Amino acid sequence: MSELGSLIYTPQRAGGEAVSKVESHTPRIQAPDKVGKNTVFKVRVEVGPHPNTVEHSIRWVELYFKEDGRAFNPVLLGRFVFEPVYAEPAVEVSLKLGKSGRLIGVAYCNLHGLWESSKDIKVE
After folding, report:
1. Is the Cβ–Cβ distance between 114 and 108 less than 8 Å?
2. Which listed residue, 4, 45, 75, 109, has the most CB atoms within 10 A of its CB?
3. Which of 111, 109, 108, 100 is nearest to 65 (CA)?
4. Whole-Å CA distances, 29 to 3, 32, 53, 88, 103
């Protein structure tokens, strides 16, 4: 595992004090399990409930796609920056995919670091 990869928490890799942060820091990806090829569909990514102050907040979320059979992965689908106090860490995007793969969400908390989750999606 790369050095950066070892610094990203997931529900499976959280240990010690990080275990208590899993529910409030792990991105939740809401998307259909199956979609039509090149058909537009919605994906929602949200984090929380989580404090939203200047001192402690989710600053950004990135959404990636690891496409089956692609030589170089992942594809960055979007980066969403949230201003503390004013913006809540939730976003909805419209996507269309030509191949199956895995959506990967990464969130950054200014106090508790990087958190990741994923969801497989099948294209029919």
Report:
1. yes
2. 45
3. 100
4. 25, 10, 23, 15, 8
Q: In degrees rounded to 5, what are phi and psi of residue 62? A: -115, 145
Question: CA quadruple 94, 116, 46, 112: dihedral positive or negative?
Answer: negative
User: Which residue type is seen at 13?
Assistant: R
pTM of the complete model beyond 0.85: yes
CATH code of the region 3-123: 2.60.40.730
For 35-82, what is each residue's pLDDT tens digit?
A: 999 999 999 999 999 999 999 999 999 999 999 999 999 999 999 999
SS3 label, residue 22: helix
For the chain, the 3-state helix, strand and coil shares in percent, each to the nearest 5, are 10, 45, 45
For the chain, the residue count is 124
Specify whether the CB–CB gap between 10 and 28 falls below 8 A. Answer: no
One-letter amino acid at 57 equals S
Average pLDDT of the segment spanning 113-121: 98
